Amino acid sequence: MAPIPNHSMDMLIRKLDSIARLSDKERRAVEQLPVTVRPLGQHQDIVREKDRPSQCCLLLEGWACRYQVLSDGKRQIFSFHISGDIPDLQSLHLKVMDHSVCTMTQATVAFIPHEAMLELTVAFPGLAATLWRDTLVDGAIFREWMTGMGRRSALGSIAHLFCEMYVKLEAVGLARDRTYKLPLTQQDIGDALGLSNVHVNRVLRELRGKGLITLQSHKLQIHDWAELNKLGDFDPTYLHLDRGAA
Amino acid sequence: MSLQLQPVRVKTGSHDTEGQLVFSDGFLVAVLVRLSQDHEEEAGLWFLEAGFDGADRATQPKFAVNAD
After folding, report:
1. Is the overall model pTM greater than 0.95, yes or no?
2. Looking at the domain assignment, is residue B18 inside a domain?
3. Which residues in chain A are classed under CATH 1.10.10.10?
4. What distance in Å separates the CA atoms of residue A199 and residue A223, rounded to the nearest whole number?
5. Could you give the number of structural domains in chain B?
6. CB B47 to CB A205 under 8 A?
7. Could you give the residue range(s) of every CATH 2.60.120.10 domain in chain A?
8. Span A10-53, pLDDT tens digits
9. Which residues share a beta bridge with B46?
């Protein structure tokens, strides 16, 4: 009997398809991955630093982040993740987690056993290459964040983040018309960009005052995309979405 | 160590303009700014806007001590 197609894999397929076009066989193989789907609450750890996970976590719904807490209690957020992302994909080959991953909103996740992922990558080298490419894009995003933290102003960093998240969300069909749901607090933004929440507050007021954005009830509307790009020195090349967004 | 305060207006690009220069033995060590109503529940707290030689911190603290 053929396995029943697994529709919870649609987000992963959409994400992988935004990186490289999947063949029908590859698509079916992803659909048939054995997954355990679980709802998670807000601010819930999915995997913690020093854990040795035996499964990867695919985010189906909601936002998550990679982070680390320093010995003095300060938090650094390394990256934000959206539907279709596998934020702990590295655990497939790096056995010990060197950071934690938690939800930022209520979320639905699908856990995929490492064994099944490894079998998939052996059976379908094209999929392995796509996942590899995804981790390379991940590295490109880290480089961009490093530039931002080291060299951009608070205004530039926040403008850049808003542009980046729009392009990523739009690529998987979760944003359009320069509008998206941004479920982050000022503290979250500060922890990601190395800014105090005081500076985040000031910059958001400045962006609103200039008429570039509206941010209300976690809904972000970008009114002047070109100007926000310019402020953030945003060039989406590093996101490598040249395959073409859905 | 003795600290001296000197009121100052700070151009932060926001409504947070009320500040204090903090001197230690005649040397400027910090610029504090009182957070305006823009910061809602944190309004009124003092924010370390800039610090020098040990008072410079990657994460700038906020505190409620009255600097007047």
Report:
1. no
2. yes
3. 153-239
4. 22
5. 1
6. no
7. 7-136
8. 888 988 888 888 999 999 999 999 999 999 999 999 999 999 99
9. B34, B63
CB contact under 8 A, B39 and A198: yes
Q: Is the dihedral of CA A212, A215, A216, A218 positive or negative?
A: positive
**Distance in angstroms (rounded) separating the CA atoms of residues A2 and A54:** 26
CATH 1.10.1040.50 applies to domain A153-239 = no
Check: complex ipTM more than 0.90: no
Does any domain span residue B68? no
Distance between CA atoms of B27 and B3, rounded to whole angstroms? 9
- Per-residue confidence at A141, pLDDT binned at 50, 70, 90? very high
Spatial strand order in the sheet of A45-47 = A45-47, A100-103, A64-69, A75-81
* Distance (Å) from the alpha carbon of A199 to chain B's nearest alpha carbon: 10
Architecture of domain A7-136: Sandwich (2.60)
**B 25-44 residues inside an 8 A Cβ radius of A:** 35, 38-39, 42
pLDDT tens for residues A84-108? 999 999 999 999 999 999 999 999 9
Burial of A91-104, coded b for 16+ CB within 10 Å and e otherwise, reads bbeeeebebbbbbb
Residue A202 makes CB contacts below 8 A (sequence gap 6+) with A154, B12, B13, B14, B16, B38
